[in-house]
């Protein structure tokens, strides 16, 4: 629950609640901010949505195969297996940078290592350690200094696993919607297209939102709110310092490379930016009649609960106040509205 609450707090600190305001024309304001020109604001053109290719689908399914790899215990490594290995490389008896690894999943036959390395693992069982004497290719583009030099790798096979075959039976174990390979490929394509759509929308919303924030003018900051958010940020680092058994001062110095005064000044700036976003979102929502009804808020809360991994809305409301949650909803609605109403322009450098 602490991790979920921390994730939610991170979301809350980028948006927040509001006071009503009124304005005329393409301008919105309240007691704390004024923002003009937000409707139809110009932003740099966002890259078009990526087309989903057969290669993308193959790569996605390959990752699902990896997630469903089955461990092998009754035979040695074969070509096509995934061998989890530790390895230490030496030249002239000395270890060298980039020549060692632990817990590395290597598909035998993938050609990720120099010639002979992967073949040397074939025939070895889990738990075995052996030396393999090889030679870097000449030339070796990975590190020209190694070109043609002999090398010895000490390799330990930690475990062996094999990928399931992609057939209808496999599909039925990994999908609730598809029962054949062809159906699953269509399902994966739809998933990837939805992801591409979400990435595009996110990029456009971010561009529009940041452009609006740049135009917004802060009339004054509600000091009590700024201090509350600043204190929350500082407390997070104090808690982290305690977890690591360090003083707050030493933790800030080692992790942030600054003194406490500098860090807390940055925390205050971050709190001010959070408050600014909160009131900009509220001002636009009020001006454009975007504020949800109570029933609509509850639907948005369900989405938030799912996004942040809470069991239900009640659990979500235990981690944040209803006012904070409404702030998050308002900011998302405003960002989507701004993206729908912005104008994308191609910069001279992109032409």
From TrEMBL:
<keyword id="KW-0132">Cell division</keyword>
<keyword id="KW-0131">Cell cycle</keyword>
<keyword id="KW-0732">Signal</keyword>
<dbReference type="InterPro" id="IPR037041">
    <property type="entry name" value="Trigger_fac_C_sf"/>
</dbReference>
<keyword id="KW-0697">Rotamase</keyword>
<feature type="signal peptide">
    <location>
        <begin position="1"/>
        <end position="20"/>
    </location>
</feature>
<protein>
    <recommendedName>
        <fullName>peptidylprolyl isomerase</fullName>
        <ecNumber>5.2.1.8</ecNumber>
    </recommendedName>
</protein>
<dbReference type="InterPro" id="IPR001179">
    <property type="entry name" value="PPIase_FKBP_dom"/>
</dbReference>
<dbReference type="InterPro" id="IPR005215">
    <property type="entry name" value="Trig_fac"/>
</dbReference>
<dbReference type="InterPro" id="IPR008880">
    <property type="entry name" value="Trigger_fac_C"/>
</dbReference>
<dbReference type="InterPro" id="IPR046357">
    <property type="entry name" value="PPIase_dom_sf"/>
</dbReference>
<dbReference type="Pfam" id="PF05698">
    <property type="entry name" value="Trigger_C"/>
</dbReference>
<feature type="domain" description="PPIase FKBP-type">
    <location>
        <begin position="80"/>
        <end position="128"/>
    </location>
</feature>
<keyword id="KW-0413">Isomerase</keyword>
<dbReference type="InterPro" id="IPR027304">
    <property type="entry name" value="Trigger_fact/SurA_dom_sf"/>
</dbReference>
<dbReference type="GO" id="GO:0003755">
    <property type="term" value="F:peptidyl-prolyl cis-trans isomerase activity"/>
</dbReference>
<dbReference type="Pfam" id="PF00254">
    <property type="entry name" value="FKBP_C"/>
</dbReference>
């Amino acid at each position: 629950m602490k991790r979920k609450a921390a994730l939610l707090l991170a979301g809350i600190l980028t948006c927040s609640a509001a006071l009503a305001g009124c304005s005329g024309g393409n301008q919105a304001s309240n007691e704390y901010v004024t923002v003009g020109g937000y409707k139809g604001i110009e932003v740099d053109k966002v890259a078009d949505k990526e087309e989903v290719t057969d290669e993308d689908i193959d790569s996605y399914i390959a990752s699902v195969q990896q997630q469903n790899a089955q461990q092998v215990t009754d035979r040695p490594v074969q070509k096509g297996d995934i061998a989890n290995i530790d390895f230490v490389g030496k030249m002239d008896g000395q270890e060298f940078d980039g020549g060692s690894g632990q817990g590395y999943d290597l598909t035998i036959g993938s050609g990720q290592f120099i010639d002979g390395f992967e073949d040397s693992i074939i025939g070895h069982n889990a738990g075995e350690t052996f030396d393999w004497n090889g030679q870097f290719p000449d030339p070796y583009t990975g590190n020209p200094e190694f070109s043609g030099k002999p090398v010895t790798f000490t390799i330990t096979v930690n475990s062996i696993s094999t990928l399931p075959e992609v057939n209808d039976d496999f599909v039925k174990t990994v999908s609730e919607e598809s029962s054949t390979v062809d159906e699953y490929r269509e399902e994966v394509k739809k998933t990837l297209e939805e992801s591409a759509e979400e990435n595009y929308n996110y990029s456009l919303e971010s561009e529009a939102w940041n452009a609006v924030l740049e135009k917004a003018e802060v009339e004054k900051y509600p000091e009590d709110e700024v201090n509350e958010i600043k204190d929350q940020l500082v407390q997070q680092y104090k808690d982290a310092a305690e977890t690591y058994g360090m003083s707050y001062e030493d933790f800030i110095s080692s992790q942030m490379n600054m003194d406490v005064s500098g860090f807390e000044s940055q925390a205050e700036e971050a709190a001010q930016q959070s408050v600014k976003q909160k009131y900009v979102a509220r001002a636009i929502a009020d001006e454009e009649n975007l504020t949800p009804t109570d029933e609509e808020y509850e639907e948005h809360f369900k989405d938030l609960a799912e996004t942040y991994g809470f069991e239900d809305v009640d659990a979500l409301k235990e981690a944040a106040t209803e006012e904070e949650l409404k702030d998050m909803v308002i900011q998302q609605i405003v960002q989507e509205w701004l993206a729908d109403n912005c104008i994308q322009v191609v910069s001279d450098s992109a032409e």
